[in-house]
Backbone:
């Protein structure tokens, strides 16, 4: 790199890379593990076992095999510290399988720049982009799916690219119970265009999820337990969705200890979903998600 950039926190929030010369990140591309879809986030991001809509393309690729019609979803997230995140996805059922195409973008703007002499008075941006192509196939009461992902990142004048893979299974042992097993970012990595071509391994995630339907299918309870490589403790996500009517749903959840809540409004083929994920109420560092979903 042409100069030493000391990103004292903000760049790490979204890009996961802090560079001083050429140093490997300890948590590359955390956006891959932050969650998408206002419906899923309202349920505490406990969605590996649910995976019954287009958000399955992110949480468990096997779930898109259950799509009954073409779907499109557009999500935007409002976050503190000038962070942004958008997700756009499309899925289409085939004979006994389905395909999906997704675009996830995230970034941080106006990061203060510093050298070994101190702050320069300038600022720079950091961004991540993930393009994902998914395929899933039904096998009896089960389904299997795979994602292939192109990873792209930039920090100031430097950029990185790489590839990633997800694999998932979904089972329905009973009418009310579904389970999912997911391996995210298998052998995923990115390489920076620095002088020594710094290569970063993306943390992999193994996840087990389950969902149970109650009250004639109007309530869904969900639980995910996952382990991120390099972390000592499991992550636990739990959530519930209750359909108050054909057009209105309420949701509550815990995203690894962070309270979440949301609601959904159905309008024919179109649905609007909102979620609020609490992080720190005192400094207003919470996340808000809005999704617009279309089935056609």
Residues:
């Amino acid at each position: 790199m042409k100069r030493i950039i000391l990103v004292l926190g903000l760049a790490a929030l979204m890009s996961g890379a802090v560079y001083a010369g050429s140093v490997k990140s300890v948590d590359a591309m955390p956006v891959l593990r932050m969650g998408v879809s206002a419906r899923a986030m309202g349920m505490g991001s406990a969605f590996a076992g649910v995976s019954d809509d287009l958000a399955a393309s992110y949480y468990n690729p096997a779930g898109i095999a259950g799509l009954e019609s073409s779907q499109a979803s557009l999500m935007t997230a409002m976050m503190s510290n000038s962070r942004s995140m958008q997700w756009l996805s499309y899925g289409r059922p085939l004979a006994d399988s389905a395909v999906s195409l997704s675009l996830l973008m995230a970034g941080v703007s106006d990061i203060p720049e510093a050298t070994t002499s101190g702050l320069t008075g300038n600022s720079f941006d950091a961004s991540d982009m993930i393009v994902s192509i998914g395929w899933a196939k039904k096998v009896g009461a089960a389904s299997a799916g795979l994602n292939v992902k192109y990873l792209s990142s930039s920090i100031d004048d430097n950029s990185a690219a790489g590839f990633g893979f997800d694999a998932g299974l979904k089972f329905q042992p009973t009418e009310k119970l579904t389970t999912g097993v997911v391996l995210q970012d298998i052998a995923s990595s990115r390489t920076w265009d620095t002088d020594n071509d710094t290569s970063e391994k993306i943390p992999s995630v193994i996840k087990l999820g389950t969902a149970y339907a109650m009250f004639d299918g109007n309530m869904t309870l969900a639980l995910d337990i996952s382990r991120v490589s390099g972390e000592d403790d499991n992550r636990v996500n739990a959530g519930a969705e209750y359909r108050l009517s054909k057009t209105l749903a309420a949701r509550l959840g815990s995203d690894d200890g962070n309270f979440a809540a949301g609601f959904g409004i159905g309008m024919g083929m179109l649905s609007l979903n909102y979620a609020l994920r609490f992080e720190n109420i005192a400094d207003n560092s919470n996340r808000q998600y809005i999704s617009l979903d279309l089935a056609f």
